[in-house]
Amino acid sequence: MIESAGEQGTAFWPAYHYLAGYLKLEAGEPAAAIEHLEQADPNDPFHTLLLARAYEKSGRATDARKAYERVVASPNNGLERALAFPEAKRRLAS
């Protein structure tokens, strides 16, 4: 649907990549998850948290730390940050 919608579908690509990345991460495929999550909404703290988890599972500790730092520093106060903040803060402390 997104592809066939042309320009009207472009707004939905980040959501598609978030969902595909989440599914790949849960399936134990962190490299594939990273591919998708890097194309998800970079301003969404929860999407960034999932990307950090994928980096961590891929052995990319530096990238994971930077992603966790972006979650903690995010100015977006909403449900997504409320869900992501505690884990990101805990991961940075360890």
Summarize the structure.
With 94 residues, the protein is mostly helical. It is 67% helix and 0% strand.
Strand content: under 5%
Structural classification: mainly alpha
Query: Globular, elongated, flat, extended or rod-shaped: what is the shape?
Result: globular
Q: Biggest β-sheet: count, sense, barrel?
A: none
Radius of gyration: 14 Å
- Separation, N- and C-terminal Cα atoms: 43 Å
Rounded average pLDDT: 93
Low-confidence stretches: none
Supply database-style keywords.
5 helices, 67% helix, 94 residues, mainly alpha, 0% strand
What does this structure look like?
The protein is an all-alpha fold and 94 residues long. Helix content is 67%, strand content 0%. The chain is built from five helices and no strands. The model has no long low-confidence stretch (mean pLDDT 93).
Topology:
Layout: H1 13-26, H2 30-37, H3 45-57, H4 61-73, H5 79-93
Helix pairs in contact: 1-2, 1-3, 2-3, 3-4, 3-5, 4-5
